[in-house]
Amino acid sequence: MTVLDVFLSTWSNARQTFGTGSPQAGAQFDNSGPLRQLASELSSATPGSRWSGSAAAAYGTANTDHQRVLGQIAELDQQLSAHVDESAHVVAAGRRDLEAVRQWVLDAAASVPPNEAGQAMMLPIVQKGVAQLAEIMQRSNRDLKAVGEKIRALGDEYQTLSHQKFGQGPTGLPPDPDQVLENILKQYQVSEEEMVTREWPWPLSEFKDPQKLTASEARMIDNLSLEEKWDFIQIKDKAEAEAEARYPEGGNIGNHRDAFRHAYWNALMTERFGEEWAREYATAHERKPANTAADEAMDLYNNEIGRAIATANPDASPEQLSDMVHEAVQNGETVVIRPDGLGLEWSDDIPVGGETGPTDRGPHGPADDPGPMPTPPKPKGDYDYGPVG
């Protein structure tokens, strides 16, 4: 067997690892188009103005979750298709490079004399060819391994999404609205922080008294410019004044006025400072000690509703945002504290001015207030409050 025969045998073994036929393309795995079309059709089935109340809110949540999951699967399909195409490209490139090395060795072999001296000349040619084969195999194996890891990671994401029930129970019906409220009470909780006193810089100190803030709130306020601090003060005052004008009945805590105030405050902060900053600050505000579980969950949830409204309507004026937040409160998209003070109710399940949890109590109330109602320990929540300021 000549050295050329040895090379061709080695080449043949390497070529077999790349298979035969056309490499499989990824288009057959991409169902993103039909999935996105289905998600679009689902969006037309949202409750809208035809159906309102807590059940509508629960169904709307399930519908939104369904659309979200379909969109995520569509995105995974596109990624899978791209990764399969990538693996096909690696295989095609490996085949092409192997063929190029084979042809180079054959061309070189044709140029040497067919005698013993020619055989000696072939040895370094074959050695170089074998080295190039090894390099191609190593590179291709490395690239295919990387693609395989990406596809396996997608498999984990597909598996996670396969457990989604789109907010539905085993009967396929919308979830129990009371269970949704219990989940909000449990999940929308954050850890406590120490309180600090912050004085406003001049000339803002001429208009605003020193305030007690959580440590995170204080850090975020300190990082604002003087102009931003003034805007922040005006936003807070506007939210309070608008809430009282919209809902003059009752006190300030646990009721529809409170729900509107928090949602509108967050909508205005989102408009001025962006969603991430508004989320971080509003969550830091709820880290005050002695905040009851119901207070905390109500505020965090309604804050989120307000930010979502502002994010979905980036060109809305403050007046338009006020109208949209008011509509959300009226339609039961926000929550209030139920009369016993220990849980939540959808804001359309209790009439405006009706009995909600005790108002002006605890850290929110006057100095002679008897204090917060006895409540069970706050559940350990997992609210996504964003980066720490």
Could you walk me through the main structural features you see in this protein, from its secondary elements to its overall organization?
- With about 400 residues, the protein is mainly alpha-helical.
- It has 2 domains: about 5-175, Substrate Binding Domain Of Dnak, Chain:A, Domain 2, CATH 1.20.1270; about 185-365, no CATH class.
- The protein has helices at about 5-15, 30-45, 55-110, 115-160, 175-185, 215-220, 225-245, 255-275, 275-285, 295-310, 320-330, and strands spanning about 195-200, 210-215, 335, 345.
- A two-stranded antiparallel sheet has the order 1-2. A two-stranded antiparallel sheet has the order 3-4.
- Strand 3 and strand 4 (about 345) form a beta hairpin.
- Helix 8 (about 255-275) packs across helix 9.
- The protein is elongated, with a radius of gyration of 33 Å.
- Residues about 165-175 and about 360-389 have low confidence and may be disordered.
Give a brief outline of the structure.
The protein has helices at 3-16, 32-43, 54-110, 116-162, 177-187, 215-222, 226-246, 256-273, 275-285, 293-312, 318-330; strands at residues 195-198, 211-214, 335-337, 344-346. By secondary structure, the protein is mainly α. The radius of gyration is 33 Å and the shape is elongated.
